[in-house]
Write a structure and sequence with these properties.
Blueprint lengths: L9 E6 L3 H10 L8 E6 L7 H9 L4 E6 L10 H18 L7 E5 L5 H18 L11 H20 L3
Parallel strand pairs: 1-2, 1-3, 3-4
Helix pairs in contact: 1-4
Bound molecules: FE2/S2 (inorganic) cluster.
């Protein structure tokens, strides 16, 4: 019997102004969230191109979340409303491709909501753990290539964050 617990790989795209700071706050207040999540910082949730999500899944992520400022509090006026609309469409599309809705999540978290963000991440990890690995047979899963590709994505995002506006 195999009693090794499945540890899902979760990729999170977080807005710099709210949710990334919430994740920081969770860390500094010692509210530990599941270590399964790899965070990628972007200036705004509106920056999350649907291809980023598809790329994360295609690289072997078992779940992906996008986290941003609450509606009405986006630093780029109404970009997170765009995020919301994209999320609904993308989640529907992913379902058509056989990816369960629990694997793709949108989380709103202000900079003060470290606890809430951590709880949402924990909940997602548990839901994806119950679903098991995302079994797209044609996809490369894990390994050095996966790690390198993730680093590449994080670097691309960092460059974007640092670019003058
Ligand atoms: S700046 Fe946070 S979602 Fe737009």
């Amino acid at each position: 019997m195999n009693d090794v617990r499945f540890e899902p790989k979760i990729i999170g795209f977080l807005c710099n102004w709210c949710s990334y700071r919430a994740a920081d706050l969770a860390g500094t207040s010692r509210r530990l969230y599941a270590p399964n999540a790899r965070m990628i910082r972007l200036m705004c949730s509106g920056r999350v191109d649907p291809t980023f999500v598809l790329k994360a899944f295609s690289l072997g992520a078992d779940g992906v979340f996008v986290a941003g400022c609450h509606p009405g509090e986006c630093h780029y006026v109404e970009q997170n409303y765009k995020t919301m609309r994209r999320f609904i469409l993308l989640r529907y599309t992913l379902e058509q491709l056989g990816i369960e809705p629990q694997r793709f999540r949108l989380i709103w978290a202000s900079a003060a909501e470290g606890q809430q963000l951590a709880a949402a991440i924990d909940e997602m990890v548990e839901q994806v753990r119950e679903l098991g690995p995302l079994d797209w047979p044609e996809l490369p899963v894990g390994g050095d290539a996966y790690e390198e590709a993730l680093e590449g994505m994080a670097q691309e995002s960092e460059e974007w964050v640092e670019a003058p506006v």
